[in-house]
Specification:
The protein has about 230 residues and is of the alpha/beta class. The protein contains eight helices and eight strands; from the N terminus they run βαβαβαβαββαβαβαα. It binds D-xylitol-5-phosphate (DX5) and zinc ion.
């Protein structure tokens, strides 16, 4: 178990997303995130089928694992996550988040169970079009609910406030009403202007690609984002 597994949903963190880093020097970029104060690093896996883009696979997760002890939050935007699961576990992921809308050889529930059985934490992600109700059958099994705040596939898109904030608030209210503990993560378009909106509606894990790796002063940018979130 990674020590960060004990992080409570009351702790607000900025998670740099590797997608926005300079891939010609990934090791240096991971160390830059570490030096900037990151505790969790977000890794976006895209298969060119579930989303309209292809990023990287387990080998990149393993590459990152070799250079850091940071908590690795792996976001699988892929079909058949259950088929590929062992490879991401072996690569050194600490949390694996799967999409409720994706196709599985088994099922969403089975896949979450396998992630936990391997000693990892597990997350469930909702596309902006997917209602919170789609997560209801799984809310007692997950460590994290990811409310996508852009259509998954690309960094640098605008934050979909109107479409996603009511859902985030509903997920927060349901958690509080039922004594559950899952983190609420937002991903996409999180900047200084949108971080406080996400925070107000219940998010504690703020994935930041462009707004964290973009600026030369990553430490300053992350501190600003955290201060804005409040
Ligand atoms: C989008 C990815 C995000 C992406 C966010 O499909 O899941 O993690 O890196 O990038 P920004 O912060 O640039 O919107
Ligand atoms: Zn992501």
């Amino acid at each position: 178990m990674h020590p960060e597994s004990a992080t409570s949903h009351e702790t607000c963190l900025i998670l740099p997303s590797l997608l926005a880093s300079d891939w010609s020097r990934v090791g240096d970029e991971v160390r830059r995130a570490e030096a900037a104060g990151a505790r969790w690093l977000h890794l976006d896996v895209m298969d060119g089928a579930f989303v309209d883009n292809i990023s990287f696979g387990p080998q990149m997760v393993q590459t990152v694992r070799k250079v850091t002890d940071l908590y690795l939050d792996v976001h699988l935007m892929i079909h058949r996550a259950d088929h590929y699961l062992e490879r991401f576990i072996k690569a050194g992921a600490n949390n694996i988040t799967i999409h409720v809308e994706a196709n599985y050889d088994s099922s969403v529930g089975e896949t979450l169970k396998r992630i936990r059985a391997a000693g990892l934490q597990c997350g469930l992600a909702l596309h902006p079009d997917t209602p919170f109700e789609a997560a209801l059958p799984y809310v007692r099994e997950i460590d994290l609910l990811l409310v996508m705040t852009v259509v998954p596939g690309f960094g640098g898109q605008p934050f979909m406030e109107k479409e996603t904030m009511p859902k985030l608030a509903a997920a927060r209210d349901y958690r509080e009403a039922n004594g559950l503990k899952y983190h609420l993560e937002v991903d996409g378009g999180v900047y200084v202007h949108s971080a406080p909106i996400a925070r107000r509606n219940g998010a504690n894990l703020l994935v930041c690609g462009t707004s964290s790796f973009g600026p030369a002063d990553m430490k300053g940018a992350m501190a600003e984002l955290l201060a804005a979130a409040g």
